[in-house]
Amino acid sequence: MNDGFLGILRLALTALQNLSFAVLVGTLLSDRWLARSPSPWQARVSLSLARVFRSGAIVALLSGVLVFWIHCALMSDSSLIDAGPAVRSMLAETDFGHAWAIGAGLLLCVAIVSFFPWTGRGFGFQLILWLALAGFALSRSHAGHPVDAGAFSLPVWVDWVHLLAISAWVGLVWVAAFMVAPKMTDAPQAEHQNGASFVQSLSDTATYALVALFVTGTYNGWRGVGSPGNVLDSWYGQLLVLKLGLVIVAAALGGHNRFFEMPRLMESLQNPSSTSRARYIRRFATVLHVESWVLAGVLVAAAVLVASPLPGTS
Predict the structure, then answer these.
(1) Half-sphere exposure (Cβ direction) of 179: Cα atoms closer than 13 Å
(2) Is the pTM of this model over 0.70?
(3) Domain segments of the chain as ranges
Protein backbone atom coordinates (compact mmCIF):
# COMPACT_ATOMS: atom_id res chain seq x y z
CA MET A 1 0.00 0.00 0.00
CA ASN A 2 1.21 3.48 -0.74
CA ASP A 3 0.46 6.81 0.92
CA GLY A 4 -1.99 7.72 -1.84
CA PHE A 5 -4.12 4.67 -1.12
CA LEU A 6 -3.87 5.21 2.63
CA GLY A 7 -4.95 8.81 2.20
CA ILE A 8 -8.00 7.81 0.20
CA LEU A 9 -8.81 5.07 2.71
CA ARG A 10 -8.57 7.56 5.57
CA LEU A 11 -11.02 9.91 3.82
CA ALA A 12 -13.45 7.05 3.11
CA LEU A 13 -13.33 5.87 6.71
CA THR A 14 -13.77 9.44 7.99
CA ALA A 15 -16.89 9.81 5.84
CA LEU A 16 -18.14 6.45 7.14
CA GLN A 17 -17.62 7.57 10.73
CA ASN A 18 -19.42 10.85 9.99
CA LEU A 19 -22.39 8.94 8.58
CA SER A 20 -22.39 6.45 11.46
CA PHE A 21 -22.38 9.26 14.00
CA ALA A 22 -25.23 10.97 12.16
CA VAL A 23 -27.25 7.74 12.24
CA LEU A 24 -26.68 7.52 16.00
CA VAL A 25 -28.12 11.01 16.45
CA GLY A 26 -31.01 10.36 14.07
CA THR A 27 -31.85 7.02 15.69
CA LEU A 28 -32.00 8.49 19.19
CA LEU A 29 -34.23 11.36 18.09
CA SER A 30 -36.53 9.11 16.06
CA ASP A 31 -36.95 6.59 18.85
CA ARG A 32 -37.66 9.37 21.34
CA TRP A 33 -40.44 10.78 19.15
CA LEU A 34 -42.06 7.42 18.40
CA ALA A 35 -41.96 6.46 22.08
CA ARG A 36 -44.39 9.29 22.86
CA SER A 37 -47.17 6.85 21.89
CA PRO A 38 -46.17 3.36 23.12
CA SER A 39 -47.72 0.44 21.24
CA PRO A 40 -46.78 -3.00 19.88
CA TRP A 41 -45.98 -1.42 16.47
CA GLN A 42 -43.84 1.26 18.11
CA ALA A 43 -42.04 -1.40 20.18
CA ARG A 44 -41.14 -3.33 17.01
CA VAL A 45 -39.83 -0.20 15.33
CA SER A 46 -37.90 0.69 18.49
CA LEU A 47 -36.28 -2.76 18.49
CA SER A 48 -35.14 -2.23 14.90
CA LEU A 49 -33.80 1.21 15.79
CA ALA A 50 -31.90 -0.32 18.72
CA ARG A 51 -30.13 -2.74 16.38
CA VAL A 52 -29.27 0.08 13.98
CA PHE A 53 -27.96 2.19 16.86
CA ARG A 54 -25.79 -0.67 18.13
CA SER A 55 -24.35 -1.30 14.67
CA GLY A 56 -23.77 2.42 14.13
CA ALA A 57 -21.88 2.73 17.41
CA ILE A 58 -19.59 -0.18 16.54
CA VAL A 59 -18.93 1.10 13.00
CA ALA A 60 -18.24 4.65 14.25
CA LEU A 61 -15.79 3.35 16.86
CA LEU A 62 -13.91 0.96 14.56
CA SER A 63 -13.71 3.39 11.65
CA GLY A 64 -12.41 6.06 14.04
CA VAL A 65 -9.68 3.73 15.29
CA LEU A 66 -8.62 2.91 11.74
CA VAL A 67 -8.61 6.59 10.74
CA PHE A 68 -6.34 7.44 13.67
CA TRP A 69 -3.99 4.53 12.95
CA ILE A 70 -3.72 5.52 9.27
CA HIS A 71 -3.16 9.16 10.26
CA CYS A 72 -0.25 8.14 12.49
CA ALA A 73 1.21 5.94 9.75
CA LEU A 74 1.08 8.79 7.26
CA MET A 75 2.53 11.31 9.70
CA SER A 76 5.43 8.98 10.54
CA ASP A 77 5.92 7.85 6.93
CA SER A 78 5.61 4.23 8.01
CA SER A 79 3.45 1.26 7.07
CA LEU A 80 0.33 0.36 9.02
CA ILE A 81 2.11 -2.60 10.57
CA ASP A 82 5.01 -0.43 11.78
CA ALA A 83 2.87 2.51 12.97
CA GLY A 84 2.57 1.31 16.58
CA PRO A 85 5.29 3.60 18.00
CA ALA A 86 3.83 6.58 16.12
CA VAL A 87 0.39 5.82 17.57
CA ARG A 88 1.76 5.71 21.11
CA SER A 89 3.69 8.93 20.57
CA MET A 90 0.65 10.69 19.09
CA LEU A 91 -1.56 9.61 22.01
CA ALA A 92 0.96 10.58 24.68
CA GLU A 93 2.48 13.77 23.31
CA THR A 94 -0.02 15.64 21.12
CA ASP A 95 -3.24 17.55 21.73
CA PHE A 96 -4.66 15.87 18.63
CA GLY A 97 -4.01 12.47 20.20
CA HIS A 98 -5.54 13.53 23.51
CA ALA A 99 -8.69 14.82 21.80
CA TRP A 100 -8.98 11.64 19.75
CA ALA A 101 -8.53 9.43 22.83
CA ILE A 102 -11.31 11.25 24.69
CA GLY A 103 -13.64 10.92 21.70
CA ALA A 104 -12.82 7.24 21.27
CA GLY A 105 -13.47 6.61 24.95
CA LEU A 106 -16.88 8.28 24.69
CA LEU A 107 -17.76 6.25 21.59
CA LEU A 108 -16.72 3.11 23.43
CA CYS A 109 -19.10 4.11 26.22
CA VAL A 110 -21.89 4.55 23.65
CA ALA A 111 -21.14 1.15 22.12
CA ILE A 112 -21.23 -0.56 25.53
CA VAL A 113 -24.44 1.14 26.64
CA SER A 114 -26.08 0.26 23.32
CA PHE A 115 -26.01 -3.41 24.37
CA PHE A 116 -28.15 -2.69 27.42
CA PRO A 117 -31.86 -3.52 27.11
CA TRP A 118 -33.44 -0.90 24.83
CA THR A 119 -36.96 -1.25 26.25
CA GLY A 120 -37.99 0.13 29.61
CA ARG A 121 -35.08 2.56 29.74
CA GLY A 122 -35.46 5.80 31.65
CA PHE A 123 -34.26 9.36 31.27
CA GLY A 124 -30.80 8.46 32.60
CA PHE A 125 -30.21 5.98 29.76
CA GLN A 126 -30.78 8.57 27.05
CA LEU A 127 -28.93 11.27 29.01
CA ILE A 128 -25.78 9.13 29.11
CA LEU A 129 -25.95 8.56 25.37
CA TRP A 130 -26.61 12.22 24.53
CA LEU A 131 -23.79 13.46 26.76
CA ALA A 132 -21.38 10.91 25.27
CA LEU A 133 -22.36 11.83 21.70
CA ALA A 134 -22.10 15.56 22.41
CA GLY A 135 -18.70 15.00 24.02
CA PHE A 136 -17.51 13.00 21.03
CA ALA A 137 -18.60 15.80 18.68
CA LEU A 138 -16.67 18.30 20.80
CA SER A 139 -13.56 16.10 20.64
CA ARG A 140 -13.88 16.06 16.84
CA SER A 141 -14.01 19.86 16.79
CA HIS A 142 -10.85 19.93 18.90
CA ALA A 143 -9.07 17.68 16.38
CA GLY A 144 -9.68 19.89 13.34
CA HIS A 145 -8.91 23.35 12.00
CA PRO A 146 -10.98 25.28 14.64
CA VAL A 147 -8.60 24.31 17.45
CA ASP A 148 -5.94 26.53 15.85
CA ALA A 149 -7.74 29.37 17.67
CA GLY A 150 -7.27 27.60 21.01
CA ALA A 151 -9.03 24.94 23.06
CA PHE A 152 -12.69 25.71 23.80
CA SER A 153 -12.44 28.86 21.68
CA LEU A 154 -15.39 30.34 19.78
CA PRO A 155 -14.43 28.61 16.49
CA VAL A 156 -14.41 25.26 18.30
CA TRP A 157 -17.89 25.80 19.74
CA VAL A 158 -19.25 27.01 16.40
CA ASP A 159 -17.81 23.94 14.69
CA TRP A 160 -19.37 21.76 17.43
CA VAL A 161 -22.83 23.21 16.76
CA HIS A 162 -22.21 22.80 13.02
CA LEU A 163 -21.32 19.12 13.47
CA LEU A 164 -24.36 18.43 15.64
CA ALA A 165 -26.66 20.25 13.20
CA ILE A 166 -25.46 18.38 10.11
CA SER A 167 -25.51 15.09 12.03
CA ALA A 168 -29.11 15.64 13.16
CA TRP A 169 -30.24 16.49 9.63
CA VAL A 170 -28.39 13.66 7.89
CA GLY A 171 -29.22 11.11 10.58
CA LEU A 172 -32.93 11.91 10.64
CA VAL A 173 -33.23 11.75 6.85
CA TRP A 174 -31.41 8.41 6.67
CA VAL A 175 -33.35 6.85 9.55
CA ALA A 176 -36.67 8.14 8.24
CA ALA A 177 -35.97 7.03 4.66
CA PHE A 178 -34.64 3.55 5.38
CA MET A 179 -36.20 2.62 8.72
CA VAL A 180 -39.34 4.47 9.77
CA ALA A 181 -41.12 5.40 6.51
CA PRO A 182 -41.14 1.81 5.12
CA LYS A 183 -42.71 0.58 8.37
CA MET A 184 -45.37 3.29 8.27
CA THR A 185 -46.92 1.83 5.12
CA ASP A 186 -48.22 -1.24 6.97
CA ALA A 187 -48.78 0.38 10.38
CA PRO A 188 -52.25 -0.20 11.88
CA GLN A 189 -54.82 2.58 11.84
CA ALA A 190 -54.18 3.40 15.50
CA GLU A 191 -50.56 4.29 14.69
CA HIS A 192 -51.26 6.86 11.99
CA GLN A 193 -51.40 9.75 14.44
CA ASN A 194 -48.03 8.68 15.86
CA GLY A 195 -46.68 8.58 12.31
CA ALA A 196 -48.03 12.08 11.64
CA SER A 197 -46.37 13.37 14.83
CA PHE A 198 -43.08 11.77 13.77
CA VAL A 199 -43.22 13.37 10.31
CA GLN A 200 -43.96 16.79 11.85
CA SER A 201 -41.08 16.47 14.33
CA LEU A 202 -38.77 15.32 11.53
CA SER A 203 -39.62 18.31 9.35
CA ASP A 204 -39.38 20.86 12.18
CA THR A 205 -36.05 19.54 13.49
CA ALA A 206 -34.53 19.34 10.00
CA THR A 207 -35.55 22.97 9.44
CA TYR A 208 -33.93 24.13 12.70
CA ALA A 209 -30.81 22.09 11.89
CA LEU A 210 -30.62 23.67 8.43
CA VAL A 211 -30.78 27.19 9.89
CA ALA A 212 -28.03 26.35 12.40
CA LEU A 213 -26.02 24.73 9.62
CA PHE A 214 -26.09 27.80 7.39
CA VAL A 215 -25.23 30.19 10.22
CA THR A 216 -22.33 28.14 11.55
CA GLY A 217 -21.24 27.12 8.05
CA THR A 218 -21.01 30.75 6.98
CA TYR A 219 -18.80 31.50 9.98
CA ASN A 220 -16.61 28.43 9.45
CA GLY A 221 -16.34 29.01 5.71
CA TRP A 222 -15.35 32.65 5.99
CA ARG A 223 -12.84 31.87 8.70
CA GLY A 224 -11.41 29.03 6.60
CA VAL A 225 -10.95 30.81 3.26
CA GLY A 226 -9.84 34.11 4.79
CA SER A 227 -10.71 36.28 1.79
CA PRO A 228 -13.12 36.16 -1.20
CA GLY A 229 -10.22 35.56 -3.56
CA ASN A 230 -9.47 32.23 -1.90
CA VAL A 231 -12.94 30.83 -2.53
CA LEU A 232 -12.31 29.71 -6.11
CA ASP A 233 -8.53 30.01 -6.19
CA SER A 234 -7.86 27.35 -3.55
CA TRP A 235 -8.65 23.64 -3.26
CA TYR A 236 -10.21 24.28 0.15
CA GLY A 237 -12.47 27.02 -1.23
CA GLN A 238 -13.57 24.88 -4.17
CA LEU A 239 -14.47 22.03 -1.83
CA LEU A 240 -16.41 24.48 0.31
CA VAL A 241 -18.41 25.61 -2.73
CA LEU A 242 -19.11 21.99 -3.64
CA LYS A 243 -20.31 21.25 -0.12
CA LEU A 244 -22.54 24.34 -0.15
CA GLY A 245 -24.00 23.30 -3.50
CA LEU A 246 -24.87 19.85 -2.16
CA VAL A 247 -26.43 21.38 0.96
CA ILE A 248 -28.58 23.64 -1.23
CA VAL A 249 -29.74 20.67 -3.32
CA ALA A 250 -30.59 18.69 -0.17
CA ALA A 251 -32.39 21.71 1.29
CA ALA A 252 -34.43 22.03 -1.92
CA LEU A 253 -35.44 18.38 -1.69
CA GLY A 254 -36.38 18.84 1.95
CA GLY A 255 -38.36 21.94 1.03
CA HIS A 256 -40.23 19.99 -1.65
CA ASN A 257 -41.19 17.36 0.89
CA ARG A 258 -42.25 19.94 3.46
CA PHE A 259 -44.39 22.11 1.20
CA PHE A 260 -45.70 19.64 -1.40
CA GLU A 261 -45.56 16.02 -0.19
CA MET A 262 -45.96 16.49 3.53
CA PRO A 263 -49.37 18.30 3.56
CA ARG A 264 -50.97 15.48 1.56
CA LEU A 265 -49.24 12.84 3.67
CA MET A 266 -50.34 14.47 6.93
CA GLU A 267 -53.92 14.73 5.70
CA SER A 268 -53.98 11.06 4.71
CA LEU A 269 -52.54 9.98 8.08
CA GLN A 270 -55.13 11.99 9.98
CA ASN A 271 -58.03 10.86 7.77
CA PRO A 272 -59.15 7.31 8.69
CA SER A 273 -60.98 6.90 5.39
CA SER A 274 -58.02 7.84 3.17
CA THR A 275 -57.19 5.29 0.48
CA SER A 276 -54.02 7.04 -0.79
CA ARG A 277 -51.99 6.84 2.41
CA ALA A 278 -49.47 4.24 1.20
CA ARG A 279 -48.89 6.16 -2.05
CA TYR A 280 -48.19 9.43 -0.20
CA ILE A 281 -45.84 7.67 2.21
CA ARG A 282 -43.91 6.18 -0.72
CA ARG A 283 -43.64 9.55 -2.45
CA PHE A 284 -42.44 11.20 0.76
CA ALA A 285 -39.92 8.37 1.29
CA THR A 286 -38.67 8.56 -2.31
CA VAL A 287 -37.66 12.19 -1.87
CA LEU A 288 -36.04 11.28 1.45
CA HIS A 289 -34.00 8.57 -0.30
CA VAL A 290 -32.65 11.03 -2.87
CA GLU A 291 -31.98 13.60 -0.14
CA SER A 292 -30.14 11.00 1.93
CA TRP A 293 -27.61 10.29 -0.82
CA VAL A 294 -27.07 13.97 -1.53
CA LEU A 295 -26.38 14.45 2.18
CA ALA A 296 -23.95 11.52 2.06
CA GLY A 297 -22.07 13.58 -0.52
CA VAL A 298 -22.05 16.48 1.96
CA LEU A 299 -20.39 14.23 4.54
CA VAL A 300 -17.76 13.10 2.02
CA ALA A 301 -17.00 16.74 1.17
CA ALA A 302 -16.77 17.52 4.88
CA ALA A 303 -14.30 14.66 5.40
CA VAL A 304 -12.08 15.99 2.60
CA LEU A 305 -12.30 19.54 3.97
CA VAL A 306 -11.08 18.45 7.41
CA ALA A 307 -8.04 16.79 5.83
CA SER A 308 -7.30 19.71 3.50
CA PRO A 309 -4.95 22.57 4.43
CA LEU A 310 -6.45 26.03 4.80
CA PRO A 311 -5.57 28.54 2.06
CA GLY A 312 -2.11 29.96 2.62
CA THR A 313 -0.98 27.19 4.99
CA SER A 314 0.11 24.47 2.57
Answers:
(1) 27
(2) yes
(3) 3-307
